[in-house]
Write a structure and sequence with these properties.
The chain has about 150 residues and is α/β, with parallel strands linked by helices. The chain is about 50% helix and about 10% strand. It has helices at about 10-15, 25-35, 45-55, 60-75, 85-95, 100-110, 145-150; strands spanning about 5-10, 40-45, 80, 115-120, 125-130, 130-135. Strand 5 (about 125-130) and strand 6 form a beta hairpin.
Length: about 150
């Protein structure tokens, strides 16, 4: 395990395929390319949510969404929710501090040894279950925290 292991939230994956997402589309493509050179794990939750979002919103074809999800499954190590992560997520969500799905993502990442999540959905800079939340999107570039995390050195 690396102290720089991280994961990508669904929004980064969706933006990478959604050409209508403007700068976020370009940045997400860059994030994923850089993530392939680092200790990035994807959660099965994020890949599943990606497929559900892409086939519901239809910014691309069902076949393209499926093929992209399968590619990411082949390219990245994956983490899945366990009974322990579900228990932790339920407790955290019940405390009112996040949605259940965000709590499940964070606790699954923590159990997989991730120290950060790149997402725009949670409060940048906070730490939950020893996992730092990093919003990768700066104004027109990657945020400095995301740039540091994605650097391959």
């Amino acid at each position: 395990m690396s102290d720089r292991r991280f994961t990508l939230d669904t929004n980064v994956l969706v933006y990478a395929m959604d050409r209508q997402a403007g700068e976020r589309h370009m940045l997400s493509g860059r994030i994923i390319a850089m993530a392939m050179q680092t200790d990035c794990w994807l959660t099965l939750q994020s890949i599943s949510e990606f497929y559900a979002a892409m086939t519901r919103k239809r910014p691309t074809s069902i076949d393209a969404a499926r093929d992209q999800a399968l590619d990411w499954l082949a390219m990245f190590p994956t983490a899945t929710a366990t009974a322990s992560t579900v228990r932790s997520a339920l407790a955290f969500a019940a405390s009112g501090r996040s949605s259940y799905w965000d709590a499940l993502l964070v606790h699954t990442a923590a159990e997989a040894g991730c120290t950060a999540i790149l997402t725009e959905d949670l409060t940048d800079g906070t730490v939950v279950a020893n996992v730092r939340i990093v919003n990768p999107f700066g104004s027109a570039t990657l945020s400095p925290a995301a740039e540091e995390l994605l650097s391959a050195d």
